[in-house]
UniProtKB/TrEMBL annotation:
SUPFAM superfamilies: Cytochrome P450. Residues 1-20 are annotated as: Disordered. Pfam families: p450. The keyword Heme applies. This is Cytochrome P450. Signal peptide: none annotated. Keywords: Heme, Iron, Metal-binding, Monooxygenase, Oxidoreductase. It comes from Streptomyces fragilis. Belongs to the cytochrome P450 family. Residues 1-14 have a biased composition (Low complexity). The keyword Nucleotidyltransferase does not apply. Gene3D superfamilies: Cytochrome P450.
Length: 427
């Protein structure tokens, strides 16, 4: 996953005058706690506004919930044109290749989605819950042993102990990666999830090549000898005689690793950090009653900001003139939809900047909306539920082992990514 290099922020006024924007997009001030402060003013005064970006191309930024939701499902905004040759380079956004499902428009997107959707149904995901619980319990058993032994003062890195290995193991099992290959697979997948313009050194690119080579071989093995895993199911998928090609299967494997591993790991780590650092009272509510966890996960998905750019990271291009919020976006212009801003819209969410794990009305769009909504949303939710339930049940007195200001973050990623989260038991 790559992200364009940011330029030096400067004072800039968006087209149309009015509310000034401090710096180019992505704006400064974004964190896991929430989107940059500029979004509140933009929602109120200029909800659809043209802003300069770090890539040197101006783009239309949409910040209100209803507008973001509507445009997310508008076929006139093209993902394919944003990924094609000669497409404008919008700084701070993810570079996806044209063949990835997130890069396609209808009818190509509809064809692929129809072929793979059966592997991600809620019923199929629920059948996986027992296995996800097993993996989580094993990881937490190891965590409990480490904290009890007191080695290193009983400090455990929750990123390395749970947030990364849980989704990575689940994705490995979904793809049918043999147990003997999981260690190598883990190393290559982590490299794939962290390669970007500033961190893409030779070692990382070598690992990326090894992962690509491995997935090609895995697809060939599963075609020859199918097993009970999602990759075998995708190989066998048919729709009126249509099927996924070899290239599509390999590309989908990469997509599954990036979306199903990296984003889940980051969301889990950031959510636990939010609870331990700022909202201990909310953590204690979950300790008191774990039946609150499903609703809590929805609120954490809304409130905890995953995207470092405050958007989904995927720009679109207007294939024709599009009117929204009283503004006409001309054909050919780039468009950015801020999911983080939409999730803080006071017209939709009461007291939107407050984390309320008991929030009843919560129509967040953290998984997107429309034809590009996240296929793995049921799996991501379920992994979050199982992991957080295990933590609050087995480690009710968990706390940060270092001041929050000392926590290391990975720079240059599309997501807010903790490189470690040291935690310890006790008051």
């Amino acid at each position: 996953m790559t992200v364009t290099q940011e330029t030096t922020p400067q004072e800039t006024a968006p087209q149309g005058g009015g509310c000034p924007v401090a710096g180019v997009f992505p704006f400064s001030g974004s964190s896991y706690r929430g989107p940059a402060p500029a979004y509140g003013s933009l929602r109120a005064e200029q909800p659809v506004v043209k802003v300069p970006t770090a890539g040197g191309v101006d783009a239309w930024l949409v910040t209100r919930y209803e507008d973001v939701r509507r445009l997310s499902a508008d076929p006139r905004l093209s993902r394919a044109q944003a990924c094609g040759e000669g497409a404008p380079r919008v700084g701070g956004t993810m570079h996806t290749t044209p063949e990835m499902i997130i890069s396609l428009d209808a009818p190509e997107h509809s064809r692929l989605r129809k072929l793979v959707a059966g592997a991600f149904t809620m019923r199929r995901v629920e059948r996986m819950r027992e296995n996800v619980q097993r993996v989580t319990d094993e990881l937490l058993d190891d965590m409990e042993a480490k904290t009890a032994a007191g080695d290193g003062g009983g400090v455990v890195d929750l990123v390395q102990q749970l947030a990364v290995p849980l989704p990575l193991t689940v994705i490995g099992e979904l793809l049918g990666v043999p147990a003997k290959d999981l260690r190598d697979f883990e190393q290559w997948a982590r490299a794939f999830a962290t390669v970007d313009d500033r961190a893409g050194g030779e070692e990382s690119l070598h690992a990326l090549g090894k992962l690509s080579e491995y997935i090609v071989g895995l697809v060939a093995d599963k075609r020859a000898q199918p097993t009970d895993d999602m990759l075998s199911e995708l190989i066998a998928a048919r729709d009126e005689g249509d099927r996924l090609s070899e290239a599509e299967l390999v590309t989908f494997g990469f997509t599954l690793i990036g979306a199903g591993f990296d984003t889940t790991a980051n969301q889990l780590a950031n959510s636990v950090l939010a609870l331990l650092a700022d909202h201990r009272d909310q953590w204690d509510l979950l300790v008191e009653d774990t039946s609150r966890i499903p609703r809590a996960v929805e609120e954490l998905l809304r409130h905890v900001n995953l995207f470092a750019t405050d958007t989904s990271g995927f720009p679109r291009i207007a294939a024709e003139d599009v009117e929204v919020g009283g503004v006409t976006i001309p054909k050919g212009d780039a468009v950015l939809l801020s999911l983080a801003s939409a999730n803080r819209d006071p017209e939709v969410f009461d007291d939107p900047d407050r984390l309320d794990l008991g929030r009843e009305r919560n129509p967040h769009i953290s998984f997107g909306h429309g034809m590009h909504y996240c296929l793995g949303k049921h799996l991501g939710r379920m992994e979050m539920e199982v992991a957080i339930e295990g933590l609050v049940r087995r480690f009710p007195d968990l706390r940060l082992a270092v001041p929050e200001s000392e926590l290391p973050w990975h720079e240059g990623e599309i997501n807010h990514t903790l490189t470690s989260l040291p935690v310890v038991r006790g008051s």
